[in-house]
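new request in #modeling-help
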Amino acid sequence: MAPDTRLLPGTLDLLILKAVSLGPLHGYGILVRIGQISGGALLIEQGALYPALFRLVRQGLLKAKWGISENNRRAKFYELTAAGRKHLRQEADDWNRLAAAIASALGTQPEEV
Amino acid sequence: MFRDLLFRLQALFRRSRIESEMDEELRAHIRNRADDLERSGFPRAEAERRARVEFGGVERFKQECREALGTRFLEALVQDVRLAFRMLRNSPGFALVAILTLALGLGANTTMFSLVDGILLRPLHYYDSSELVQVWSTQRGRAQQIAVSPADYLATRDRGASFQQVALYTFSQLVYTTRHKAESFFAVKTTASLFPLFHVKPILGRNFTPTEEQPGGRRVAILSYHFWQENFAGNRNALGKTITLDHEPYVIVGIMPASFDFPVKTNLWLPLVMPSDQSRVASWHGFTMIARLKPGVTIDQARADLRSTAELVTEQYPSQRGWGLQAVSLLDQVVGHERALLLALLGAAGFVLLIACANIAGLLVARGMRRQKEIAIRLTLGATRRRIIRLLLTESLLMSMAGAALGLGGAVWAVGFLKHAGGALLPRTENLGIDPRILGFTLFLALLAGVLAGLLPSLGASKLDLNVWLKEGVPGMGVFGHMRRERLRFVLVAVEVALATVLLVGSALLLRSFYRLTGGTLGFDPHNVVEVNIPLSRQYKSPAAQAMFFRNVLERVRSVRGVSSATVTNVPPFVGSMFEIAVVRGREVSLQVETPGPSYFRTLKIPVLRGRDFGPDDSLGTPKVAIINQTMERRFWPHKNPLGQEVKFPNKPAEGIWRIVGVVGDTRALFGQPVQAEIYLLLYQQPSDYGVLLVRTERKPANLLPMIRKAVWSVDRSQLLAGASTMDQDIWSDKVEPLFRTLLLGAYAALALLLALIGVYAVAAFWVTQRTHEIGVRLALGAQREDVLGMVVRQGALATVAGLALGLGGAWGVTRVLQSYLYGIRPTDPLSYAAAAAAILLTALTACYLPARRAARLDPAASLRYE
């Protein structure tokens, strides 16, 4: 299942942080949430999610604890740490600025230069 | 950074839990996905299959997760250590040799470093000891340090430019008598400033007062702690009691703390009374000056200051023209003579370790060749080159750590032994011990040795060419790889041999020097001669009474069964020697003077060459007679008969002329001193209140000692005896220091030689193993066994000769550090070099011969099947 829209490098972390910022989620939940908030436009290779999660935990941006999922199964839930929240805000700002700049660059007409 | 490391470590130690949780998490994901798919209409089985496919390779992601956790590096380390451990266990012979070799090298270094640390590096245990200096006199044209005079002290003290405090002391031999015993030892006569200079106070009582330092002042003494414990059982009311020193009563006014016994194991301190005789104040160079630098003053500033002080002294006392003053830090003073030796020995220990490393490297190279197959498999299975190097390094580090543990055990024993046995020979041995600094040093060396020994071979091993191996189907590195490795081993063995050669030359030099020093004839026979010191009591004041006492004692002692002869003298050889100004043939000269009783030459078996011995008729009333040694005869009467000639002693109180009646053979007074012109004066014609009884016994002298004492006491029950020894002991104590040096360096050289032997043997043996097939072919084709023998020996001999040449050259440059310990030979002594070379060649030949013989005895048929 080839994704329609490939992820830019580094954006997976940002998406995960955003997904989790709305409330603690387990791995599969994060995947579903990213699908929802991107309107299904961004698809992620499922297994690739986990190395990213482990890395974010090690960097101290996420914390994980075991709990019970909605279907009554044991599951590992991820949530943002204070550092993670700060990191997300920063990254989101940077991203928006970059995206705006790129969009404006791409929207430029030849005669405007 | 730290948090990250902690995380990694936690991850490492909770690995099994993390693994199972990871498993559970991924499985939960797939199940959730399957649930979703099922809800969208797939049958359960199909939903689960799809979920798994969508997820992708579980193992791959798990591995990525582990990497994300950062446990991989440490995991690999643990794995390496386990693997290295298993490999060592699989070849216990190799591991044992390697670990023992390293243990020897590391133990040798730890031992030496703890000596250097305890003796040279640690500050002295005195208050702010870096400020302490010793001040010496110097005289133009003389290299050595000369004791200072009272005038030097007074001038230095009064100028006070660089020093906060100055003290002067001298040693004084005296006899301490109680009702039960007499003991002779050196006391320290010192100015009262000595104690404040060291910032010490008596634990009981007080320091000397200024009036006690004046001529005619009260006789007082301060005891050291151990002397107080020994003689007064630490009783506080010892204070104020009197003790008898040199037959005079002294009042005890103070007890020093146990930590203070300056200068060396002092029993007691007496006030130093300055000579009132003005002529001797400046010329009497018989004192030691200690000073404490003012804060911030350097030793160079103090030296400059002392130069102007010396000028002041010269101005005041013109007789002191040409004299100067010099300061040396107290630490340098205490350890000065041993410094070069200890550093040389540390260097020797370093050499031993390098040889050990070269040996291990050699063994690892050889093993690497045998392990090509294993390494090739690891490389094919995807191990990286770095990983292989790390694995091999881990192995050598594991061995070096085991070696360090073992070597440390050896060092603890060796340091304990040296502390016990070297106490009289090395300064500051009370400091010796293994402490954390030394542990750190050993650990550091072990790491260094492990890396050093492991790096070269593992670099080589990891360069294995897989293509060649796969194509040829045999584990081989191709011809070039082989040659490179053999060259590497050749170099390693040559280096080992070179280092061992340097050490051997050094020990050969010390050994030759030792024989030079102690060899040759003594001129007398010291065996089975017992010495008993007799400080005469005060009742024997007149020379007549003294002579009578000794006459009677000798008579009684000679009648003891087992005594073959007996005599008495003032200073026996190897105890000391006295020099006096004499007038011989109209010239004033300095002569060595000894005053023995009759039978002296017979008892010590010194031949009377001309004239006669002292006879029973020579006594206080008859003309004074003297006997001279051969050296004196040669010096003053080379072509004439000395018998009947006269010698005068202007400084002797009893004015008189001594007539020479005999010439005896030369005797040595101490090792390392040339025989001096010596004259013997009869004790009975000389006043002397101190005599040493010399008794020659038929058997071991120790058993007779009680009988001899009894014989003396049968003359005078109240006469005390001050210690006994044998002449052999005196001679031994003069020999033991150079012997100790020689043995210490010799031990390191022997170690080096042993390791080099192993190294050369390993090269030759490995060469034979590698070429079993080739040798078989040669033998089958008609090669003679001698040819094979020669071929193998040549292998080892080449490396040996190259190393030997290198080592002899190195020794030429290095052995001059031993200069000050050599007697009678130069550091370039050809015989020592030749002996070292012979020892190396012989050892190398032996090492090559065994494998060579094995090669020559190969059965061609069997060896062709060997591959």
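bot summary: Chain A touches chain B through 25 residues (CB under 8 Å).
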